[in-house]
Amino acid sequence: MNYLSINSIDNISDWVLEAKNLKKEPLKFQEIGKNKTIGLLFFNNSLRTRLSTQKAALNLGMHTVVMNFGSEGWALEFEDGKIMNQGNSEHVKEAAQVISQFCDIIAIRAFASLTDKQKDLAEEVLSAFVKYATVPIVNMESSVGHPLQALADAITINEFNTVLKPKVVLSWAPHPRALPHAVANSFIEMMQKQDVEFVITHPKGYELDPKITKNSKIEHNQNKAFENADFIYTKNWSSFNDYGKIISQDNNWMVTKKKMNLTNNAKFMHCLPVRRNVVVADEVLDNENSIVIEQANNRTYAAQVVLKKILEKIDSTY
Ligand code: CP
């Protein structure tokens, strides 16, 4: 009943279709969430995920409670058997069970630390809540994945696609801060399950986890990758091998009009927030081919289909 990665989706085409139907009639299933509460726990900042998941829950008739755990909750301990005589006040073992008394679904945002690769790959926070909570868990971006974003991306590509088998390019772009791999990971996993020609382009040294990229095509020449593309999805990520490090900020990788001119009049996508004139030039972001706002809008319907599926399973359990 959890939504932890895109592998929690049993049939992507069906879910995309259902999301598009919910977009047409968002309030059609107001009864399904009646008297149910979702708790949204944020260990990190958010605009889109926070508001779209609340909106999705409200569309389904749910109550929402939101907690900025990073700043408002007791500092959590995750290690089993720990002698808790230092900074952390509460063990996740109690916290997760207690939150489960108040909420029918718990949604969690907990980014990668980018300092401890093993803990990040083990999804320390998300896994602990899955282990100790007694209600379904939704991943609102964890160390390794952002499956709500990836589902919204699939919905958006489906809506805007005009060709039989579109060429979709995931392009790294520079950024002044070290960013996690989660968005890129989930987007790659989603594209691997779609009928698309998929290409990843990044400077050498920015290889992602090979367990994620598998046999996806990687092209180190960004201009070549952009040729005849139908969708350009841009995202920065820090080094995976030299874990969490910025090894290049080459602004030649910024997405410009000149680069977009190499494409098949491609649509421009980004999960947002985006740094203008660092990741992408104003002329691209403000162009009519930029679909980032509709992509963000689709976050609601991605979250709504996920919550609806979980609520249906909760109902069928009792
Ligand atoms: N794309 C995305 O997850 O946005 P927020 O970080 O603002 O939630």
Features:
318 residues; alpha/beta; 4-stranded parallel beta sheet; 11 strands; 13% strand; binds phosphoric acid mono(formamide)ester
Report on the structure:
The protein is of the alpha/beta class and 318 residues long. It is built from 13 helices and eleven strands. The protein has helices spanning 12-24, 48-59, 69-72, 92-102, 117-121, 124-132, 147-160, 182-192, 210-213, 222-226, 257-260, 282-285, 292-317, and strands at 37-42, 63-67, 76-77, 90-91, 105-109, 137-139, 167-171, 197-201, 217-218, 231-234, 267-269. The strands form three sheets. It has a five-stranded parallel sheet with strand order 9-8-7-10-11. A four-stranded parallel sheet has the order 2-1-5-6, sandwiched between helices. Helix 9 links the parallel strand 8 (197-201) and strand 9 (217-218). The radius of gyration is 20 Å and the shape is globular. The mean pLDDT is 97. Phosphoric acid mono(formamide)ester binds at residues 46-50, 141, 149, 271-273.
How do the helices and strands line up, and which of them pair or pack?
Elements: H1 12-24, E1 37-42, H2 48-59, E2 63-67, H3 69-72, E3 76-77, E4 90-91, H4 92-102, E5 105-109, H5 117-121, H6 124-132, E6 137-139, H7 147-160, E7 167-171, H8 182-192, E8 197-201, H9 210-213, E9 217-218, H10 222-226, E10 231-234, H11 257-260, E11 267-269, H12 282-285, H13 292-317
Parallel strand pairs: 1-2, 1-5, 3-4, 5-6, 7-8, 7-10, 8-9, 10-11
Helix pairs in contact: 1-7, 1-13, 2-13, 4-6, 7-8, 7-13
The structure holds phosphoric acid mono(formamide)ester.
Phosphoric acid mono(formamide)ester binds at residues 46-50, 141, 149, 271-273.
